[in-house]
Design brief:
mainly alpha, 67% helix, 8 helices
């Protein structure tokens, strides 16, 4: 389904929600794409999987229940499943085609240090288990709260927070950052 088709028929995400699907799409698209791209490590595949996720969400929007969590957590759950489906199809990890653009580009003096730090972080992320990378991506690429992450991964909020904290500590140690 094309972007135009998704926006041609704005419909409620659920009868008890003021959000329309179009509003949900506009508000979450950049974060869903960033999250999927982080998981897949392939921008082209991320575009397709993100589109698939929004198509699935559009078709299933009547199944959304506000009592079970936010529309964003529901949508990220769908995106996560679509990305995991793609990874299972590939049965391998794809490498990034290129590093994402840095919105806050460092000065010339900081570029060498920044490259070293970025390399250390990429290496540390690559050494994480897939479920650990998923937590990091949900938090930092997806921008989800601990409660929303818990909803996506099927855990309690405190468990999701604890697991994320442990992963971040593991990354800090691997990068030698205090």
């Amino acid at each position: 389904m094309s972007e135009a088709a998704l926006m041609a028929e704005p419909a409620p995400v659920a009868t008890d929600s003021a959000d329309t699907f179009e509003e949900l799409y506009r508000r979450t698209f950049p974060r869903v794409y960033a999250y999927v791209a982080t998981l897949l490590r392939d921008r082209s595949a991320a575009e397709e999987v993100t589109a698939q996720a929004f198509e699935r969400a559009y078709r299933k929007q009547r199944t959304f229940k506000r009592s079970k969590g936010s529309a964003e957590a529901w949508l990220f759950g769908i995106a996560r499943n679509a990305a995991l489906d793609e990874l299972r199809r590939r049965k391998r990890r794809a490498a990034l085609e290129a590093d994402p653009e840095d919105a806050a580009a460092p000065t010339a003096d900081e570029q060498a240090e920044h490259a070293l730090r970025r390399g250390a972080v990429k290496a540390a992320l690559a050494d994480l288990e897939p479920h650990e990378r998923d937590l990091v991506a949900l938090k930092f690429s997806g921008g989800l709260s601990h409660a929303e992450i818990a909803r996506v991964i099927g855990a309690t909020e405190s468990n999701a927070g604890t697991r994320l904290h442990r992963v971040i500590e593991k990354l800090r140690k691997a990068c030698d950052v205090d």
